[in-house]
Amino acid sequence: MAEKTNQGYPLAPANGYTRSDAESLQSADELKRKKRIKLAIYIGIFIVFQIMVITALSLTVMKVKTPKVRLGDINVQSLNSIPTTPSFDTKFTTQIKVKNTNFGPYKYDAAIITFLYQGAIVGQVSIPKSKAGMLSTKNVDVEVSLSSSALSSSSLGNELSSGVLTLNSAATLTGKVELMFIMKKKKSSTMDCTIAFDLSSKTLQSLKCK
C-alpha cells in the first residue's frame, strides 16, 4: 500500500491575527491620522480667518473717528448796518450739524455756539444734550440774533463801509462714541466757521467751515 502523505496546513500566527487583519488596522490608523491632519488644517484656517476679521474690525468698525460739528445753510431774516456809528445787528436761522461717521451713536452734552467779530463775542446760541446716530448727521435748528452793541473795534466802520461783514462761529462739543454697546470712547468736536454777509443785498455771501 502506498504510504499516506501527510499534507501540512499553514500555521496560524501566534498572535491570532491574519495578515489581512493587520493591513486593515494599519489602514484605519492611517485614516485617523489623515482626519487629525485635516482637523488641524481646518482649525488653522479658522484661526487665520478670525485674526483677519478682528484686524478688519479694528481698522474700520472699531476705529473711533472724531465727529464733526458745522453750521448748515443760513437764512437771513434781517441785517442792518450803520458804518458811521459803527454798528450792526442781524437775525438768521441755521442748523447746527453734528456729523457722526462711526459705527455707533455719538452722545454729546449741551453746548454753546459762539459768534465773534475779530475775536469779540457778538452773540451766542445753545444747543441741548442729544445724540447723533450711527453713520448719520444730527441737525439742530436754531435762531440766531447778533449785535455789535458790545464792540469797541475801531475797524468795524471801515468793514461796514466795504459792504461785507465777516464773522466767525466757534464751539466745542464733548461726548462719547459708543461701539458694540460695550466700548465707549470720549471725543470732542470743534467748530470753526467763517461767515461773510453781503450788506448791500442783505444776504449770505459765503460760509466756510474747517
Write the layout of secondary structure elements.
Layout: H1 19-59, E1 68-71, E2 75-82, E3 87-100, E4 106-108, E5 111-117, E6 120-127, E7 130-132, E8 136-147, H2 156-162, E9 164-179, E10 183-198, E11 203-209
Antiparallel strand pairs: 1-3, 2-3, 3-8, 4-7, 4-9, 5-6, 5-9, 9-10, 10-11
Features:
alpha+beta, 7-stranded antiparallel sheet, 4-stranded antiparallel sheet, 2 helices
| Strand runs, count | 11
Instruction: Tell me what portion of residues adopts beta-strand conformation.
Output: over 45%
The residue-averaged pLDDT reads 87
Structural class based on helices, strands and sheet pairing: alpha+beta
Biggest β-sheet strands, sense, barrel:
7 strands, antiparallel
Q: Give the low-confidence spans.
A: none
- Report the radius of gyration as a whole number of Å: 40 Å
Number of helices: 2
Large-scale geometry: rod-shaped
* Secondary structure: helix percent: 10-25%
Order of helices and strands: HEEEEEEEEHEEE
Distance between the amino and carboxyl termini? 125 Å
Describe the fold and architecture:
- The strands form 2 sheets. Strands 4, 5, 6, 7, 9, 10 and 11 form a 7-stranded antiparallel β-sheet that branches. Strands 1, 2, 3 and 8 form a 4-stranded antiparallel β-sheet that branches.
- The protein has helices at residues 19-59, 156-162, and strands spanning 68-71, 75-82, 87-100, 106-108, 111-117, 120-127, 130-132, 136-147, 164-179, 183-198, 203-209.
- By secondary structure, it is of the alpha+beta class.
